[in-house]
Design a protein that fits this description.
It is built from twelve helices and 15 strands. The strands form three sheets. A six-stranded antiparallel sheet has the order 1-15-14-10-12-11. Strands 6-5-4-7-8-9 form a six-stranded mixed sheet, with helices on both faces. A hairpin with a 5-residue loop joins strand 11 and strand 12. The protein is α/β, with parallel strands linked by helices. Helix 1 crosses helix 8, helix 9 packs antiparallel against helix 10 and helix 9 packs parallel to helix 11. The radius of gyration is 24 Å and the shape is globular.
């Protein structure tokens, strides 16, 4: 059908435009690392980049109540107004009305938005960046050369208050230089140290990682520390084959090493795997343990772009140490934990507490809360029937305060439902579609890893067709984009060769983007063929 094909092409173009906006944002951010923070209007326009961030919120409700406390050790400021808070919270019910005399199971969507609302340009927070570089024998040649060029680029672009450190590892681990301010002298010395790096022997990844974490710890304990934000960038092209080598041991080592930091000073760990021979399972596990992200870099020429993605995000962090608490209200019951891929636990009040490490300017986090509505004795008109109380506590990196936001999700419980006025939330349907897509892609991934590549591809295709039918004809552009992504995923399962040649790495990056609701733009180029294995 030509009309359907044209519609599909148009929707895919919309997704590409979103990704292009993301690339422009991170590239511009990276180039302006040494300048002041840009105003919030232009930043917000360019930061709704991933499919999961393109979901619109249309909610009419009272603004959240902001309560502010000064953070110990940070600059004192007057209490911020609601308009200046760097996070906002919105709630949306699955339907706009529910009959008062019936019990019902439904959903409430809680959305946290990051926003730099300061009208004036403010000096951004300085960054601490530790590069942990694999210099084993397999990194020799163009790989190492490109990595060194990128290190130089970072040093040249960092501001005078930012600090950079380089740790290299092969069989042996060496700190080439500790966290050093990238002023003229620091930058000159760093560039001299970069050119001395040579490829060596084995891959002592565990030693390099621990040394990188220790460099951050030493940097935070010194008198000249000024940074609230720190990151470790781990670059490797292979597997660990010296020291601790198993995934479980390395993940536990990372978690234990990072637990020594206070929540608001814990460094983020970003992992970069080069070529087709690195272990995506290992690098994803390490990035998850370090609240960072995993990047698959198929081409050494993409190194700078991958770094830009990370540093552009670090530059725009507006909130850290975010704790969200959802508690039932008005006799409602939460029958199970919220739908999200972040850590959650019972709050002892019939609800749940969820923790998020940070949020960038323009980003959103969507939490889908299942709610059981009780049967009421009398109708509640208007929008006055409470379902859920939401409380968010976080460190505001723009205002340098600790803030608490509170909001209540409410709905109408009339005597009789007016079908002409009944409205179903598109945003909630989009989130349900996203979670279904992730679950089906995970099942297909397991089958593919077991060698059942045809079964994996057929499962994904069948799940896509079923979901498409369930959604019907009135699908939003986001729902169509998610279905298109499932269809694209099938092409990476044409054979075991295409799966092992990069398809699995593409899967990891895409799943991570949806799981964390954060774009990771560097993905593997996949060798595709038509043979079934």
């Amino acid at each position: 059908n030509p009309k359907l094909e044209n519609k599909k092409v148009k929707e895919r173009k919309q997704v590409l435009n979103l990704e292009r906006k993301m690339f422009n944002r991170i590239s511009n951010s990276f180039r302006s690392l040494s300048s002041s923070r840009s105003n919030s209007d232009s930043a917000t326009e360019d930061t709704h980049h991933a499919i999961v961030d393109a979901i619109p919120m249309q909610v009419d409700q009272d603004p959240p109540v902001a309560q502010v406390a000064n953070i110990a050790g940070l600059n004192e400021e007057e209490n911020a107004s609601e308009e200046k808070a760097s996070l906002s919270v919105k709630c949306e019910c699955e339907y706009n009305q529910y009959a008062f005399n019936e019990q019902q199971d439904t959903h409430v969507l809680v959305t946290i938005n990051g926003q730099d609302n300061t009208p004036e340009k403010k000096e951004r927070q300085p960054l601490d960046v530790v590069i942990v570089l694999d210099v084993s024998g397999s990194m020799s040649g163009m790989k190492l050369k490109k990595c060194i060029e990128t290190c130089k680029f970072i040093a040249n672009e960092l501001g005078e208050k930012d600090r950079l450190s380089l740790v290299t590892y092969d069989t042996h681990v060496k700190t080439r230089f500790p966290l050093t301010k990238m002023d003229e002298n620091g930058r000159t010395q760093a560039n001299k140290d970069f050119v001395k790096v040579r490829a060596g022997s084995a891959t002592n990844l565990s030693g390099g990682l621990v040394q990188g974490i220790e460099e951050v710890k030493r940097g935070q304990s010194c008198k000249e520390r000024t940074s609230q934000i720190s990151a470790i960038l781990l670059l490797t092209d292979g597997y660990a084959n010296h020291g601790i080598t198993d995934i479980t041991g390395l993940q536990k080592l990372t978690q234990t090493s990072l637990e020594q930091f206070p929540k608001d000073r814990k460094p983020k760990l970003y992992t970069f795997g080069y070529g087709s021979n690195h272990s995506e399972n290992l690098l994803e596990a390490l990035a998850d343990a370090g609240d960072g992200a995993y990047f698959s870099v198929a081409n050494v020429d993409d190194v700078a772009g991958s770094f830009a993605d990370v540093l552009g995000g670090l530059l725009s962090i507006v909130a850290q140490s975010i704790t969200l608490e959802v508690t039932p209200a008005g006799g409602s019951v939460l029958p199970g934990p919220p739908k999200c891929k972040y850590q959650s636990s019972s709050n002892g009040k019939g609800g749940y507490t969820i923790e998020f490490p940070d949020l960038y300017d323009g980003e959103s986090r969507n939490i889908l809360v299942p709610v059981h509505l009780p049967k009421l004795q009398s109708p509640v008109p208007g929008n006055d029937a409470p379902l859920l109380t939401v409380k968010v506590k976080y460190t505001d990196c723009v205002l340098k305060t600790i803030q608490t936001l509170s909001v209540q999700a409410s709905t109408s419980r009339p005597t009789k439902i007016d079908d002409n006025l009944l409205v179903k939330s598109t945003a909630i349907q989009e989130q349900l579609t996203r979670f279904t897509m992730m679950e089906e892609m995970e099942k297909a991934e397991i089958l593919a890893d077991q060698g059942n590549i045809v079964q994996a591809r057929d499962h994904l295709a069948s799940a896509r067709v079923k979901l498409d039918k369930e959604l019907g004809l009135q699908k939003s552009s986001v729902m169509n984009a998610l279905l298109n992504e499932m269809e694209d995923s099938e092409t990476y399962m044409t054979s075991l060769h295409s799966w092992n040649g990069g398809g699995r790495k593409w899967y990891k990056v895409k799943q991570q983007a949806h799981r964390k609701e954060r774009n990771c733009s560097s993905v593997a180029n996949v060798e595709s063929d038509s043979e079934d294995s």
